[in-house]
Amino acid sequence: MTSAQVDQHRDGNEAVRAEGSEGGEGYQRGLGARQIQMIAIGGAIGTGLFLGAGKGISKAGPSLILAYAIAGLVIFLIMRALGELLMYRPVSGSFSEYAREFLGPFWGYATGWTYWLFWVVTGITEVTAAAKYMTYWTHGSFPQWAYALIFTVLLYTVNLISVKLFGELEFWFSMVKVTAIVGMILICAGILTIGFSDAADTASVANLWNHGGFFPNGIGETLMTLQMVMFAFLAVELVGVTAGESKDPEKTLPKAINTVPWRIAVFYVGALIMIMSVIPWSNFKAGESPFVLAFEKMGLGVGAAIVNFVVLTAALSSCNSGMYSTGRMLRDLALNNQGPKIFTKLTRSGTPLVGTSFSAALMLVGVWINYQWPGKAFDYVVSFATISGMWAWIVILLCQIRYRARSDRGELPRSGFRAPGGRFASWGALAFIGMVIVMMGIDKDARVSLYCAPLWALVLGISYLVLKRRNPEAAAFRKR
Description:
mainly alpha; Amino acid/polyamine transporter I; 22 helices; disordered N terminus
């Protein structure tokens, strides 16, 4: 590509962005800077931390902190790779659209449908967790599946009204989570320094190494928790899906992405250090929220109820994000002739009516799961959500590698938000994800997701061949 062509490409992108400010592709740019910031912050704080961390602590002990720190560094590399692509071309569809451009139409097809499936499965996971948290107050007097049904219908309604309402709800969901974690860290710090509450007598930073050492069950068990750790970070990439509906994405998106390191340092590493300093790790069990249990051990019963409300909020926040992203992903597929055209329909407020409705209907499967297996529903879907969600990260990294190579050759304009480490960092992140997948294959509980992945790949391959034969345009890439 000549320099003149590059300038023309850049001018074309600016025209698209200008159009997008008035509602590109029918969407309305209703997400402001504060909402994007909170979506980015809240995306990394979900049931993987509040509920799943209990299992991780019971398996790895204090070394879980190190697992979160290392995985968090990899997540930052992934997000910076996504940021480089977003500043090159901030479009709806995000990494699915980049997959079509840099890897080929089939990759865009596979990424779009896999990410859609990821959020449907995650929605089931989160509504399951939300229903489980409600039993803290009702003690089984109201069926768990009924809570799942109520939450699904409520969030579906919110997402159909407007993207601005979605953003506002997500802002306050995230605000509750952030305030609660910061407050819990401060309370733990007070117990360690001033010495109040029932846990003061045993509270000490030495609890991180006094009960069997920092690696009480060996390094192997720490490695085995990596798939749970990565599950906790799923949804951080959601900020990329908001690109088509963000006000001034060139400023808001980089700022949101650059908050990833301190988010992980405070909300994961910091919170777990404080909790396991106040309460020895051996007190925590799988299936129990470490945050709720910590307050109960401190003798702060009201605090436990508050934290339970917060983790309920976290679950609803993630489900809310799932409702949002599934409709957008289905519409992106339809606009590229890789999904039913009916999914292109928008409401007057610019929300994808049919795509969101179809996804919400499938999420109601979660209600049935809660009815059939109320005690095991969360574990059934976590593993498959992890492998399907990591596919998006793999695609982001591969696209960034291809894009950086082409931009370095002058074939494409350079992004104004280049990822540190370039292609080498992305290859390193890919290697880490590969190691996590190997660990999932070793873990008998997580292995089920690896059995499902080849079946899903076969479905995608066959359906794409049929689609391409019926509609050759499905195999063509049209830059939007």
